[in-house]
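Appendix B. Chain record.
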Amino acid sequence: MVIFKFFSLLLLAFSFFHYPTSGEDLMHGCSHSGNYTTNDPYYTNLEELFSYLTNEAPTNGFTMASKGEGENRTHGLALCRGDLSPTDCKNCVVHASNDILTFCPNNKGGIVMHENCTVRYSNHDFFDETMNNVLLCIQSSKNVNGSDPIIVIQFSQRIQDFLSKVTEEAVLNPKMYASGKSEIDEFHTAYGLAQCSRDLSRLACNKCLTQSVAFVAHPDCGEGKEGVKVYSEICRVRYELKPFVNDKHIPLPPTSYDAISPQPQPVASSHCLDASVVIVVMGFLSQLLSYNS
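Structure tokens predicted for this chain:
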């Protein structure tokens, strides 16, 4: 069952839709910037663009390009999660490119966010653009054990501290990606990642990730949850209480935190199959969607 609760909706350059029950499509959006036909040069340029993104993205997990001239010029990028193999990256970009044409037929702009990659195109040059960033929060339905609000706040603060360290590593990494793990307390080990789209400046990357990490512990997102993903068009952060990435975790400096739970807790699902989704636009809560799979 899907339950919608609407708050203040803001006018966006994209109309966003999302299908959280899907294992692949986290969110997609279609632009209001115009349409094309299959006979238009824009369509030919778009086909060339998707072919280029599919072939080039697997090399290092990211690519961007522009094809065509004048009003038929199209811009696009593909970003894969930093721990993907070239094969998995290419497969994701192929699927996302096909999805975006299905979701946004004959539209001159669109974006698809999958768990493993993001593909975006537009007739507007959006590279290094940070305006109207939409935050998608996917939270585990499981809470950290303990009804004491102090325990919940303490756990969330330690998660924020951990993700802040991962964020610092990501901003300094040429691939703008980092993952890590940290002992949150005697019974909990957190695993996390942070990543930015590589068309961003380091300053813009840091700003996006910092906002996302702050939102992780927000009551409307992930406060006290066993797993949280905060994704946007330009950056993403995530933590779970069990490993979920394919690269080698480099432990961050250990903490001296005391235990905040009397018993070991079951880990959250790495796919957050039983979860809630929150969408925030420029810091304002716009829509809350919750579901059970």
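Further analysis of this model is presented in Appendix C.
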